Amino acid sequence: MTDLSELNYQSLLIEIQKVECLVNSLASLVASEIFNREIPEYVSLKEAARLKGVTSYKNLMKKPWHQPCCGTNSVRVNGHRAWKRQDVIEWLDVTDSNLEQYARSKNVDISRHFKNGRNI
């Protein structure tokens, strides 16, 4: 009977770990959704730089290939260039290692500015 109790205990621990994993996953998903909803429908370059957190507005102004949609697909909102929320959310995950792939997905040739993960 002791072996059976130990087996039930181990099984219960495994189930608790599965539930804990699901709860953590759900909490992460909810936090991500809350963050995404707080982003306005249109985002200026200055706000996009703030959201990205690792670059400055001045640097982004000089390097359009580092901007959302590699500087394309912007619209004018109250006289300022802005991008749609979904474009900015997608851009937030772009790093130097995947910038060239991101540019290709936006049909933008950045090869004269950026090659093999480096600014030229």
Task: Describe the protein.
- With 120 residues, the protein is α+β, with helices and mostly antiparallel strands.
- 55% of the residues lie in helices and 12% in strands.
- The protein is built from 5 helices and 5 strands.
- The protein has a 3-stranded antiparallel β-sheet. A two-stranded antiparallel ribbon has the order 4-5.
- It is elongated.
- The N and C termini lie far apart (71 Å).
- The mean pLDDT is 90.
Helix and strand arrangement:
Blueprint: H1 2-38, E1 42-44, H2 45-52, H3 57-62, E2 75-77, E3 80-84, H4 85-92, H5 99-105, E4 114-115, E5 118-119
Antiparallel strand pairs: 1-3, 2-3, 4-5
Specify the structural class: alpha+beta
The tally of strands reads 5
Number of helices: 5
- How would you spell out the order of helices and strands? HEHHEEHHEE
Task: Tag the structure with descriptive keywords.
12% strand, 5 strands, three-stranded antiparallel beta sheet, elongated, 120 residues, alpha+beta, 55% helix, single chain
